[in-house]
Write a structure and sequence with these properties.
9 strands; alpha+beta; five-stranded antiparallel sheet; single chain; 33 helices; 68% helix; elongated; 769 residues
């Protein structure tokens, strides 16, 4: 009989003990994570009357895999959208907690006589909470859907990122015993760039790939694909200086935004439970009673400081972010443990020989103690909130409520146009800026050394080819950074002088960044003078931005990015019953007013084209009523005459700006004085003969249709169909009033408006039943 491998016997011990201890914990209403840690203690070297683990190295590998699975599962719960929703509160909570606990931990280490370097590491380690313990405790207690859970997880994600940068800082300090400001800033900037580049490429590629492959993938293939993506991103994260945990989390977050998130989560859960259980058992292995007894007082002191300090600083951070006291305190109670990142930091200190050997077992013991207390603190968070509300002065409570209300009012009171413009501004800047920076770094750090090795002594040729390759990509990326959302820009410019100042500053920053990125490759490779190079680059970039063909490509890239980013939310929305519900953007974003033609624009052969309202005011004239004549979707050559009634369509803000600017008003207002939606206008044409009525319908673009692959401007929709394109849907992403440079693609749902003539043409073409 052959000998049973050690791994099988070790797993048997772990799983049997874990089954017993977790069932006992469930019986006495304790989180299962405590049972796993107890099982690890019983299976460890301390308890000799029970079977122990033989091959600790293999179990550590399984434990590392467990961390990856747990972080991947956590990512599946938190899409990029969900993280963005708790971004500011999470950032404030994590920042306040990390700074507060870092300072407290450092001075506590100094008071204990542990020296400067041990104290620095101690401060950073105490600031790190455990994502896995928090997640497991919240899940086991059935609190995953509570509002505080989102704040806690958002805070932990930011903490994990802080931990990664802390490792960079500490390793730099440990090696040089001082901080080299420029080298440290460069490394941190590169990490941020890699992280942003990774997210952008992941959002652009992963949902697209899953859409193309999901039709041929059964559950088995989808599981393999998902785990392959998880481990690939974990390895790549390690290679570029991040952590495997963060890579796995990002892989889960990217899949969480796709249509298949629930299916992937269902398939991955058994693997996550198995390997995650091994990880929590491995934490119990590290419990050493002898070491705990030797350092019992420092361990208890650090545990109390960690619990009370995290409760205080995380609650203050939540309150500073405008959260209620109850939510802030519950989120704080869930994060009072010292996390597994602290083990990594302690190991880093030992490997670099800058921390004492005592620090690692102490921080493990503190982690175990605080992990055991976390579930109890979560249960006590409610009574503690009630107690604080009784003890705190009424003025303090009123001030906290007023501050939270003020922050919410500040969010809702912001200019909608400014918010939309800033979202587009920073999204465009981040999307193309990060890609451009990634192109430069990849070229200088990877392509150039490769070509130099390939060409031997011919360095100049390698440099020229590298520079050419970099600029070939930059020619496409940099002009996109300078594109302006004219619709919002014009409205904001006309709104106030203050807006003009902000817009000018934003434009100068955008141009400066584009010029900097444009000259950087030549400066890095050829050491040329950047000043004269910039003088030639600025007009060149500006000329390229005027290319309508490139504008169409930019719009396609952005549409694909937004469709992928919003895929799951769009699918949830479009799954609602009823077509009106699914395409509600037609009624929510498009409004109609009827106005008398301003006298300024009457006579002397003045045409609609001369007014140029579409470009300057972003409104469209969809009908002219001239006596008994109805001119539907008038051409630009149609003259405007005295007595004409013009039906204008646009967004609420654009129509309001137009009326104010031209001193006109709606001559056929609704009873309540509200703007009429496009839907209401279409449905309210009962008194108009059918031949004169406006119609609105959707046309699915087929691969054989002549409009496919052409820009809206060149598609002939107006000339061939006698229709006006008011919007389209691409991969369920609504694009109202699309730019005329946008290229139409197979599968686009085109929403067109016209008269009976349009309907007849569409029927004859087989596009309408």
């Amino acid at each position: 009989m052959h000998e049973i491998p050690a791994l099988i016997t070790d797993l048997t011990v772990i799983l049997v003990l874990a089954a017993i201890t977790t069932i006992l914990c469930k019986k006495i209403n304790l989180p299962s994570v405590l049972g796993y840690i107890l099982a690890g203690f019983l299976a460890g070297p301390v308890v000799d009357f029970l079977p122990t683990i033989n091959d600790m190295g293999t179990i550590e590998v399984w434990s590392d895999i467990g961390v990856i699975f747990l972080m991947f599962g956590l990512g599946l719960e938190f899409s990029v959208h969900k993280m963005a929703e708790v971004g500011v509160p999470g950032f404030l909570s994590a920042g306040v907690q990390a700074l507060g606990m870092g300072v407290v931990g450092f001075f506590l280490g100094i008071l204990l006589g542990w020296g400067t370097m041990n104290s620095v590491f101690l401060g950073v380690m105490l600031a790190m909470s455990s994502t896995m313990i928090t997640m497991k405790s919240i899940e086991d207690m059935g609190l995953k859907e509570e509002k505080f859970a989102g704040l806690a997880m958002g805070t932990l994600v930011i903490e994990d990122i802080i931990a990664i940068f802390a490792m960079v800082v500490l390793s730099t300090i440990a090696v040089s015993q001082s901080i080299s400001g420029w080298a440290l800033a460069e490394r941190m900037a590169l990490l941020l760039l890699y992280l942003a580049l990774w997210l952008i490429l992941g959002i652009y590629l992963v949902p697209t790939l899953t859409r193309k492959l999901v039709g041929v993938m059964n559950d088995e293939m989808l599981l393999i694909f998902s785990l392959g993506l998880c481990f690939l991103m974990a390895i790549l994260a390690e290679k570029i200086g991040l952590s495997t945990e963060l890579g796995a989390f990002l892989a889960g977050s990217l899949l969480a935004g796709t249509l298949h998130a629930e299916r992937v989560e269902r398939l991955v859960t058994p693997c996550k439970n198995l390997f995650g259980g091994v990880f929590f058992v491995s934490v119990g292995f590290m419990v050493q009673p002898d070491m705990i007894l030797q350092y019992i007082l420092p361990i208890l002191l650090l545990s109390v400081v960690a619990i009370l300090g995290k409760l205080l600083f995380l609650t203050l951070g939540g309150l500073a972010a405008g959260q209620e006291l109850e939510i802030s305190l519950h989120a704080a109670a869930a994060q009072t443990q010292v996390g597994e990142f602290s083990f990594i930091l302690a190991g880093l200190g030992q490997s670099l020989s800058v921390t004492g050997a005592f620090l690692y077992p102490i921080i493990v013991a503190v982690s175990v103690v605080t992990t055991f207390t976390t579930p109890f603190l979560l249960k006590l968070a409610g009574p503690l909130t009630t107690l604080l509300e009784r003890l705190l002065p009424d003025k303090w409570l009123s001030a906290m409520e007023g501050y939270a209300s003020a922050r919410q009012a500040g969010k809702t009171g912001e200019s909608k146009d400014m918010v939309l413009y800033l979202k587009h501004y920073f999204r465009t800047l981040a999307l193309y800026g990060v890609l451009a920076a990634g192109d430069i770094i990849l070229g200088v750090r990877s392509l150039l050394p490769f070509l130099v090795d390939l060409m031997g002594q011919n360095h100049r040729k390698a440099e020229i080819l590298t520079c050419a390759g970099i600029y070939l990509v930059l020619v496409f990326l940099l002009p996109a950074m300078l594109r302006v959302k004219k619709r919002y820009f014009t409205a904001l410019w006309l709104e106030s002088v203050y807006n003009r100042l902000i817009l000018c500053i934003l434009m100068i920053f955008r141009i400066g960044l584009a010029v900097f990125l444009a000259v950087l490759p030549a400066v890095l490779i050829f050491q040329v003078n950047p000043l004269w190079l910039a003088s030639g680059v600025i007009p060149l970039i500006w000329i390229i931005t005027q290319s309508e063909k490139l504008a169409g490509h930019y719009l396609e890239v952005e549409a694909r990015f937004l469709a992928n980013l919003n895929e799951r939310k769009l699918a949830e929305h479009f799954s609602r019953p009823g077509e009106t519900e699914a395409h509600h953007w037609l009624t929510e974003q498009l409004y109609v007013i009827t106005l008398a033609c301003p006298s300024l624009y009457v006579g002397h052969g003045t045409t609609l084209q001369d007014h140029n309202w579409g470009k300057t005011d972003h409104i469209n004239i969809i009908k002219i009523v001239r006596g008994r004549e109805h001119i539907n979707i008038p051409e630009g050559e149609v003259q405007t005459l005295s007595g004409d009634l013009m039906v204008a369509m646009g967004s609420r803000k654009d129509l309001e700006h137009f009326c104010f600017k031209q001193a006109v008003y709606d001559v056929r207002p609704t009873k309540g004085g509200r703007l009429r939606t496009l839907k209401d206008y279409i449905e309210g044409q009962e008194g108009i003969p059918e031949s004169r009525q406006l119609l609105c319908c959707g046309v699915q673009l087929d691969k054989d249709m002549p409009q496919q692959g052409k820009s809206i401007r060149d598609s002939g929709i107006k000339e061939v169909w006698s229709a006006f394109l008011i919007g389209l849907e691409r991969d369920m992403l609504p694009i109202p009033n699309p730019d005329r440079s946008l290229t139409l693609r197979t599968g686009d749902l085109l929403w067109v408006m016209g008269s009976q003539e349009m309907a007849g043409k569409l029927v004859r073409l087989g596009l309408l039943d």
